[in-house]
């Protein structure tokens, strides 16, 4: 539709992921995996698009917004807790406790206004972490990746076919 219908051709594809697409969290493995898949797909397809088509993709990575996804009958639920993981000191148990007490403090109406702004940018970002938790997770993930790459860079020095 972006190429065939829009005049001029092009447009924006806003992919709604999650801060859990940036980094997995305990008790949310299935949800995190689906968001990681969406992010990998979005990154790949963005590289496949012909620049002449003028199609830009942005992955929106919201934190906890007070939506039906957190508060409604169809709210995202942590995965079923296996009896081996019921220790209240384990991260999965702590996350479940946190989730049971928190409905999110992000205002979804305000988030939509921010998302709409994306459609007017000449150069849209590939990612938009949206919420203080998403920003924190994004920064921590980036710092951890840089630290790991720097620490183990030498391990890649002699792994090539000669």
Short description:
With 162 residues, the protein is of the alpha/beta class. The chain is built from six helices and three strands; from the N terminus they run E-H-H-E-H-H-H-E-H.
Q: Sheet with the most strands?
A: 3 strands, parallel
How many beta-strand segments? 3
- Give the end-to-end Cα distance, rounded to a whole number of Å: 47 Å
Strand order of the largest sheet: 1-2-3
Estimate the helix proportion, in percent: 40-55%
> Which range does the strand content fall in?
5-15%
Quickly give the structural class.
alpha/beta
Number of helices: 6
Our Rg estimate from Cα atoms comes to 19 Å
Tertiary shape: globular
Reading the helices and strands in chain order gives: EHHEHHHEH
Question: In words, what does this structure look like?
Answer:
Strands 1-2-3 form a 3-stranded parallel beta sheet, with helices on both faces. Helix content is about 45%, strand content about 10%. It has 6 helices and 3 strands. The longest helix has 21 residues, at about 130-150. The protein is globular. The protein is an alpha/beta fold and about 160 residues long.
């Amino acid at each position: 539709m972006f190429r065939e219908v829009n005049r001029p051709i092009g447009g924006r594809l806003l992919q709604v992921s999650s801060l859990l697409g940036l980094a997995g969290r305990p008790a949310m493995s299935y949800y995190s995996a689906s968001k990681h898949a969406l992010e990998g797909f979005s990154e790949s397809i963005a590289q496949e698009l012909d620049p002449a088509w003028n199609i830009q993709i942005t992955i929106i990575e919201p934190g906890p917004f007070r939506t039906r996804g957190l508060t409604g009958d169809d709210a995202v639920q942590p995965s079923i807790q296996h009896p081996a993981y019921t220790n209240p000191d384990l991260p999965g148990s702590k996350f479940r406790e946190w989730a049971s007490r928190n409905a999110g403090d992000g205002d979804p109406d305000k988030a939509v206004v921010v998302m709409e702004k994306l459609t007017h940018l000449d150069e849209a970002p590939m990612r938009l972490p949206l919420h203080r938790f998403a920003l924190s997770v994004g920064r921590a993930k980036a710092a951890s990746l840089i630290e790991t790459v720097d620490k183990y860079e030498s391990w890649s020095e002699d792994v090539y076919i000669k």
